[in-house]
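in:
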């Protein structure tokens, strides 16, 4: 019985596992706009919450197959009435909404379809998936997650200036939009991480 099980497991490994080993990974992601994004950024966001101070770091990851984002912001100015409305709409407390926000994400391009794909994980315990396309110096992605859906653009507005616009709906279906303007602090030229 044990011998038969071992033969079946070996057969399954060879028939299912070996083709995976035979596939070569794609070469490093070669996209000039994603390369340009790599570096450290700082700026501000204007949104229904008010104004925030933002920092973002972008690095290559997994042998140049993805870019990784680390993002944080802190509310600098807010309208108390808008904060109250946002708390009611999201089911969060005003204190939770005013806490510094942190997020991490990854983005890459599907080698077959050339579609941009990404995942975002935020300190509001949100996980979102995004898909989109590039047109010129702008990537437009539609993001879906428990905090709502949105269309977000990443635009190269100058050698050291990135503008991100977003428009969407919160979990209750209310319209939300805003813009983030970031300036480059430091450009990173290092290779990918494992």
């Amino acid at each position: 019985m044990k011998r038969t099980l071992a033969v079946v497991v070996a057969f399954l490994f060879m028939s299912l596992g070996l083709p995976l080993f035979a596939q070569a990974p794609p070469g490093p992601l070669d996209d000039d706009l994603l390369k340009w994004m790599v570096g450290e950024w700082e700026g501000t966001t204007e949104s229904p919450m008010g104004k925030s101070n933002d920092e973002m770091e972008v690095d290559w990851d997994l042998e140049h197959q993805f870019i990784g984002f680390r993002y944080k912001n802190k509310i600098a100015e807010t309208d108390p009435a808008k904060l109250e409305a946002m708390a009611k709409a999201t089911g969060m407390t005003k204190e939770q909404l005013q806490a510094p926000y942190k997020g991490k994400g990854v983005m890459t391009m599907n080698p077959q379809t050339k579609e941009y794909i990404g995942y975002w994980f935020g300190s509001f315990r949100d996980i979102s998936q995004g898909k989109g396309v590039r047109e010129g110096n702008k990537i437009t992605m539609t993001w879906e997650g428990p905090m709502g859906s949105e269309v977000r653009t990443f635009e190269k507005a100058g050698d050291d200036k990135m503008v991100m616009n977003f428009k969407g709906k919160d979990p209750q279906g209310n319209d939300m939009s805003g813009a983030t303007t970031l300036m480059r602090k430091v450009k990173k030229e290092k290779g990918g991480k494992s």
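note: Strands lie at 39-47, 50-61, 66-77, 101-109, 116-122, 126-135, 138-145, 148-158, 161-169, 175-186.
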